Amino acid sequence: MLALLVAVPIALSPLKNYDLFFHLAGARWILTHGFTRQDPFSVTGTAGWVPHEWGFGILAELSLRVFGAAGPELLTATLVAAFILLGWRAIRSASSAPGLVELGVLALTLVSQAFTWYQERPYHLGHVLFALALLLTQAWRRGSQRAPWALLPLCALWANLHGSWILGPALLGSTAVGALLDGGDAAHRRRCALALGAAALAYLASALSPSGPSIYLYPILHSVLSSTGTLEEWQPLDLTLRWARYFLAFAFLAAFVCGGARSRTWAILLPALGLTVASLGAQRHAPFAALLLAVFVAEHHHRLAPSALPDAVRGAFRRMERWSSAWIQRAGGTAWPFLVLAAIGVAAALHPAPVREKLYPGRFPLACFDALKSLPPGKVLNRFIMGGALSYFAGPEYKVFIDSRNDPFPQQIHDDYDTFVYALPGWREALARYSPDYVLWNRTGPGRALPELLLREGGWVKIAEPEREDCTLLKRERP
User: Fold this and answer.
1) pLDDT at residue 426, rounded to an integer
2) What CA–CA distances, in Å, run from 38 to 34, 122, 339?
3) Do 420 and 427 form a contact (C-beta atoms < 8 A)?
4) What's the CA gap between 342 and 235, in Å, rounded?
5) What is the pLDDT of residues 356-415, one digit of tens each?
6) What are the sequence ranges of the domains in the chain?
7) 8 Å CB contact between 39 and 45
8) pTM
9) Pairing mode, if any, of strands 399-400 and 379-382?
10) Is the four-CA dihedral 280, 281, 284, 290 of positive or negative sign?
11) Are 353 and 453 in contact (CB under 8 A)?
12) What are phi and psi of 463, to 5 degrees?
């Protein structure tokens, strides 16, 4: 029911995320030209183009070709529904008698993930694959000998879909270390050693991607880039956001359960603790950490000492717990969300809508893109967020200054971009270094001064400034 209620509104919503379009532009290029190390969309991306999330772009582009503009939303909705069902399976299997508490921690997990639902981005694939990796580690803890080795092909696939692939080997490795801390006989220690070996091989398997062995250091190198720290999802947990406050409350709930439990299992406590700490430094990890916290609470809350609540309250809770446990044991319906999404997909495939008709109203400067496309190809000085959409709607012939792929651009480009946004001293020299033919900029908010400065300096002419779009297009008249 939860998966159905969450997934259907996503499937019916308009396209709204700018990042989707650099994935689509990249997929279109790969399907036409194959992989290339040289950045096809800019002349400033001198660090080289490594589309490490190319698999998501291909899936999104193919969904567009089959279902029209509804495709990326259907893909997102399907992945979110799959995560909810896989996450519930992991939570339910961790408890000896799933009931109200398990439903509650599932709800907290979804609240911690909710900020991603309406973004058509590849981390939905990361969430699903992480849930699968968690189910494999749980199977190993229950005695399966094959489960750790299944992580190898999973990680090889994961490395081509989303940058969170490193969480798979980290989860299995930290679970094995935790199991060692829990103690056991010699056979148990051998099982833990084999699981650690499987985690190491899963890490190595990630090189089966266009990045090759360079992907081994990518998560570390990307996280230490100065430009990465400016991205919202890589910033510390922002408690001004409602979902972040719920996540922090969830972490405190897990700490309360951990402190009150008669015994603790390090095999789940260690990975949950590590990923929760990581979430405080980079909030993109919070959805992954929330699922581990949910499994920890489901596994440990039965070990709490009896509460000091009045008998009447405890009795009422026990009755509700028995009712919910009986309902959970009988409940099915896993196929319903996917059947409904399939029906929406059939309707979309029979009457595919063009992308322009399913965009969030007023978010994308289509008139400026159209005006630019009517002009000769050239270099475009653009806002960070617009770059991917510009490459998709106007084409790779119009070379962007920057886009939200982030990594291909050296720090000098990010510094020059800040110089343009805030009209800092040296902006003329930065402009001369890039020598753009066009400027595609916003006319409100931070950075709006640049078009005015250029028009005042002379040598530029305004081509378009649509009334309903927060965008200005300028064309250079002379060098």
Assistant:
1) 93
2) 12, 22, 42
3) yes
4) 37
5) 999 998 889 999 999 999 999 999 999 998 999 999 999 999 999 999 888 888 889 999
6) 2-330, 366-476
7) yes
8) 0.93
9) parallel
10) negative
11) no
12) -95, -40
